[in-house]
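Why does residue order matter? Because the sequence determines the fold. Keep that principle in mind as you read this record.
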Amino acid sequence: MKKSRQEKLLELISAFEIDTQDELIERLRDHGFEVTQATVSRDIRELNISKMTTGKGTYRYVLPKQNEDHASSMRFGSTIIGSIVSVESALNIVVLKTFAGLAQAVAVGIDGMKMDQVLGCVAGDDTIMIVARDESCATEISDYLRTLVGGR
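Structure:
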């Protein structure tokens, strides 16, 4: 339960500009997680989530900048993997389809994996385009992602 709650928390922070714990609590509750302020505060501390100023002079929660494999795997956990519907590649582009509204969260997870073959990701609502270094790298990336998602 804790792991899935924390994965959802990371997903929400990457997808929305959330500036208060109250808003975070409400969004978690909207997704079926009955949490208290103390639980969310503890999760924020454990996940090293911080606040930064936006260009509008307000604050928002942001994901930690980490190079550790553990952090990448937490961000790209089973909840995120389960939201990938299909993986296809063409030339040096890998296209992922996700459930509606989850593409940005998946893209954050992919970026967090720090794969040398990936030049960058562009995410919409339910589609991600991953630009690979070359066609061979695109094949490696798509094969790897297909193994993660069970062949989809």
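The chain has two domains: 2-65, 82-148.
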